[in-house]
Amino acid sequence: MREYLLVLFCTAAVTYLLTGPVRKFAIAAGAMPPVRARDVHREPTPRLGGIAMFGGLCAGILVASQLDNLSKVFSQGTDIRALLSGAGIMWLLGVLDDKWGVDALVKLGGQMIAAGVMVWQGVTVITLPVPGVGPVAVSPTQGMVISVVMVVVMVNAVNFIDGLDGLAGGMVCIAAMAFFLYSYRLWYGYTITDAAPAVLFSVLLIGMCLGFLAHNMHPARIFMGDSGSMMLGLMLAVAAISITGRVDPDLITSELGSQTATVHALVPIYIPLLLPLTVIALPLADLLLAVVRRTWAGQSPFAADKRHLHHRLLQVGHSHSRAVLIMYFWAALIAFGTVAFSVTNTGRTVVLTLAGLCLVGLVVLLTPRFRPRAPRAVQAFVPPRYRRRPAARTAGPVAHGARTAEGEGSGERGELTAESAGRAASEPMAELSAEDKRLLGGVPKGSSAITGRGHGNGRGR
To answer: Does residue 125 register a pLDDT over 70?
Structure first.
């Protein structure tokens, strides 16, 4: 575990340190497109954050190759080499799209090429475990098609969800954490060496996301762009493919002693691709809804719009930060709930816990206007939107009784009532003598005071 923590720290640190220079480079290179109608941010923000993430990936792999235990992953297979080649092609395609823009069909072709290169180097599905039947071998052609489709779907799912500050990076980080827990359990709990690459890929993903999120949380100083989102989707797909179809259920049966326990332990991967789909359930649902919505309207499935799930949360009334946190909550609930169900033997407890958390999530989802106020003792440690607003103080005799402070918690400015306005206007007049009042009554008012016209004949005096 210490070696994994070292790789995670190095990957996150390099990604974090490179993001600042990459931001300056993106501004100088002009990779800072104007704000579009579908965008949520208000000011042009530089892209190309994927460059820093790719640098963090290379640094993490370099560190892992020098460690005693993790270096065995490099010698036992070609998964690392396949990952670097596929991620490099995807990263280069994303950089070109961030700077100059790439046609949707060309981008789709590039994604398939990157997936094909990895399949050619051995990252492919070999068997599909079917409940009640066992491992079912697939032909090389079928395995290639399944692997390519899986890469393309995950890449576009992560790319589609990249619409709010910190959303894509945070959700991929949550998915990678769930993947790490499950694959680490398979490797060290059941001594299945085929799960070792998935563990390393998950650690690299977590480090890249954490290092970049420090610059990408709202308000974001830089976006990852397609160079980052497509690379994250590809890495998540590679981690899923490296563990799906390579784990032999007979190895776990020999450890547990019964087929029933084996089925329960293999819930996330016994049904083909279940775990990869659950960890990106929200991005995948958003992708499917977008394709159906645009196709039904007679548009291209790649036509951009402002009707994604995160856009709908903003339209309901949630703030930017709260919409991101809500998406985090549901992604973590689905991903870690699936992993927890595969670990524990008391499925009823997991179901009841998930049901309770779902209820909490629905309450938060349906109350966008609810803004709890923190106690006064801790107001210095909470965001400004959760602090109690003091009542505005009025100054001078004119404003006596006519406050216009903001209503506490409402965000709306109050107005002077007729009674308070009349009282404020009458108080200065009460201090004048009768002669002064008569003289003031003869002074022209309104347009007469400007044009110099009298009240009776319409001519100047």
So the answer is: yes
